[in-house]
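Here is one such protein, fold included:

. . .
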Amino acid sequence: MKKQISQIKEKLFEITVGGSFDDITELAYDLWGYPASIIDIHYHILSMYPSKKIENAVWDTIAPKKIVPDDLLAQLIEERYLESSISSERPVTIDWGVAESKPRRVCRISIRSQIKGFISIVTSSNNWTDEDSAILESMANASALLFCKMPPAAYDENKLKTVFCSSLLKGQISTKELLLRWIKGLGVSFKKRLCIFCIKPRNEEVLTNFLYIYEHVKRDFSHVLSAIFDYEIYIVYDYERPQDIDILIKQGIFEYYKKQNYEIGMSREFFDILQSKLYKSQAKKAIALGLTNKSEALVHKFHDYILKNIYSCIDSSLSSADYEHPALDILKKHDEKFKTEYYITLKEYICSLCNHSETINKLNIHRNTLRYRLQQIQNITGISLLDVDTCTKFLFIFKIEEYKLSRRN
């Protein structure tokens, strides 16, 4: 066995000089007859041999394209399958849960105590010896040397952050404990305030350049989280001060996307990142509301359309007769018969939040005239303008009228 180990180490030395990760996994397969794989710390598949299905749930999900699907990746991270290997320099046995009949023998790959990845062997029995562990360690050491030869940008280190962002926006990260595990694993932190941007093509004609646009997003927002859902790009943006958002927009960083016929929506400000799913919906809704209102704004802010969104929901679910107040009809008929201006006076007074000075300025009348009209309105209709509930109803009615008028125009 010692002679065999010596020969294997000589072969591994040759691989480190002029070979690749594929040479290591193929050597492992020749030695043990079990499938072998090498992944980096971000779960990128660097090599797997043989690259075909072996009736193993995890392996067969990855093998066709040598890519860990996002849903499987999220599961592996949340279940902390590699945690025992991270804490041990020796090879360990890992039960992957979904593949109990074929556990892994896993050894971490480290360079100066910094973990770079893992090498694993899919086994089907417990016939594993200390000599086998020594050989696997040698393979891990050889893999570490190959990591040293890799150029800095040889693989995308942002995939894990993309999965994290996607999981947040789907609401799959729902507890503080799980959030802290992700944050600790990724080494990320967030500032006090958050908002979400949605960048969406206005029509199908521009879908052909969607991935090209996403590359621009990743370049322009390299320091924040981003993810794709269908043909929508989402950015989780964190910042210190409310004015930071206005500064960002004034810099024209979104100008390029607008010129490419993409629309940008922005959620309201929020403070709990676990609520990201809700604010993702707001960012998308802001685009729809902006287009409905024919806004030419560079960024459609959901905050600017909250009331119009409420009015549209009321308008679509109720008929006018359901929410119109009989007092308003009385005033309209009185104005028509006696040529008075009580209806417009009441509207301006209510829309000014019962502020006398502002109403006087809008109507260009004397203060005593306003007092007289308000008293007459109460006498004619029998309502009290001191009643908060009544004034609130009037405010909604007048705002819905404005909304319906803007839709007609």
Residues 265 and 300 are 5 Å apart (CA to CA). The first strand starts at residue 36 and ends at 40. The mean pLDDT is 84. The radius of gyration is 32 Å.
